[in-house]
Every structure is written in C-alpha cells, then in structure tokens.
Amino acid sequence: MVRVVESNSVSGSSDVQLSLDSIRESLIRQEDTIVFSLIERAKFPLNKPSFEESRCLDSGNSSSLTEFFVREMETIQAKVGRYDNPEENPFFLDNIPHSVFPSHKYPQVLHPKASSVNINKRLWDIYFKELLPFFVKPGDHGNYASTAACDLACLQAISRRIHYGKFVAEVKFRDAPHDYEPAIRSKDTEALMKLLTFEKVEEMVKKRVEKKAETFGQEVKCVSGDESENYKVDPSLVSRIYGEWLIPLTKDVEVEYLLRRLD
Ligand SMILES: O=C(O)C(=O)C[C@]1(C(=O)O)C=C[C@@H](O)C=C1
After folding, report:
1. What is the sign, positive or negative, of the torsion defined by CA atoms of 22, 25, 27, 33?
2. Which of 47, 82, 110, 234 has the maximum number of C-beta atoms within 10 A of its C-beta?
C-alpha cells in the first residue's frame, strides 16, 4: 500500500503539535525541496552578470536582474499573503505590501519578537558569493531569466529552512526553560549554542541529504547495462552545503531568537 505523506509545516494547520520530532519532520521534508532546487539551479552555469551587474534599462533602477526579479516576485507573493505566514521571511523588507486577500489566521506559536529575526541579507551575500560558485559550473550562457527563477527557488527554500530555527528554538526553550533562561539573561551566545547543538543529529542530516542528492540527481535509465553513476549535483557537495552553511545559519537563527525570547 502506498502512503502519501502530506507536506508538513508546524504553523500551517490550526492543530499545532509543537514537538522537536514534528519540527524535525518538517526539516526533513524541506530537504527534498532544497535538494531539488539545487539540482535545478545546477542546470545552468554561474551566469554572474544576472546577479552582479546592473543592466536595468529603466534608468531609475540600479538593481541586477536577479534582485529586480526577487523584489517583484516578493511583492506579488506578499499580496497573496506569503509573508503573513511566520515561516516565511522576505529578502527585501522595504517594499512588502499587505495581502489584498483575507489572510489565513496562523496560530501564534512564536514569541512576538520572532518577526524581528531575519538574516536574509546575510544569506543573500553568502548564497551569491560562496554557495552558488561552490556547486554550479563557471560560465555565462546568457539565459538570465531562467537562472534568476532557479535562484529565487533556492533562496526561498534555504531561507525557510534556516528561519525554521525559530520554531526549533521555541520548542527547545519550552522543553527546558530553566536551562535556557540563565544563558538568555546573560546574553551568553556560546552557552546557548552549546545547549541547542546535537552533533549526532547534524551528522544524520548531512548523511541523509547526500543520499537524497544521489537518489534525486541520478540518471534514470530504462535499459540496464551502463551502470556508471552520473549525478546532476555532486552529492558530497550537497552534504557540505548543509554542513558549512545551512546548519550553522539555522543555529544562528536559533540563538538570535532565543536572545529575544524573554523580552
Ligand atoms: O534538530 C535540531 O535540534 C536542530 O536544531 C536543527 C539542526 C539542523 O540545522 O539540522 C541544528 C542544530 C542541531 O545541532 C541539530 C540539527
């Protein structure tokens, strides 16, 4: 029998079961979206001018094509309520309009200060300067519109994952307030980092995303014979993307959130 697993999200349903297990299940499901988005982006070379050069024909606009595209997409997505969802955080805060439709009532799970935790500016810089050149081929083939669409998919999937750190931190705080409160009061970020770290879980995440990259990125053949493996993105790079950027950024969000948790 086939079991279809619903995409899960802790704040999407009205019946919120906040537990570390349910949050981790959501992070596991998000891995699929992230790995697919990286595979999609890797179809294209770096295409640096799309995000580095200001080539807008509108003289009053100095954005790169990618920045222009992300700003415009965020505006339309805000109008249909994307950023009413506490799981979503915009990259460009200055131009976020209100939803023009009745908004969904998301359960208040997080501390009200949660909305002030947004590290997307940092993510933007890391993504274009370090992460992208790490997993895509160098080169410029000029198809910037399709490249920008793939970059938006990667950025949004990664942003959602790292800002999920707010939910992870909330559940960890609720499970052990007496452990966390002294470190929060003394703003001891090192102690907070230690409390929230589970090295074995991190190792498992890195192994699992490598396996997912192998599975989702393999060439699917109908005829057996040529068994050589040719992956769309090197699976070990996906594991390193998690180890070097995604997990550390998630932990930074957890710390940022916890520091505001008693305000
Ligand atoms: O699962 C957790 O406890 C998390 O905080 C998430 C996460 C991760 O980013 O995957 C981050 C820190 C922990 O050390 C383990 C895993």
Report:
1. negative
2. 47
- Could you tell me the fold of the domain covering 20-260? Chorismate Mutase, subunit A (1.10.590)
Distance in Å, CA 201 to ligand 1 centroid: 6
Token readout for 228 is 């050589």
Ligand 1 site, residue 201, Cβ cutoff 6 A: yes
Q: Which atom of ligand 1 is nearest to the CA of 169?
A: 5
Cβ distance 140 to 48 under 8 Å? yes
For 102-123, write each residue's pLDDT tens digit: 989 999 999 999 999 999 999 9
Q: Quick one: tokens of 93?
A: 């805060």
163 Cα–ligand 1 center, Å: 12
**What is the number of the ligand 1 atom nearest to the C-alpha of 168?**
5
Which residue from 174, 202, 208, 241 has its CB within 8 A of the most atoms of ligand 1, so it is best to mutate? 202
For ligand 1, atom 9, the nearest C-alpha belongs to 247
Can you list the residues of the chain whose pLDDT is less than 70? Answer: 1-8, 10-17, 226-227
- State ipTM: 0.99
DSSP readout, 223-258? S-S------SS-HHHHHHHIIIIIHHHHHHHHHHHH
What is the number of other CB atoms lying within 10 angstroms of the CB of residue 54? 12
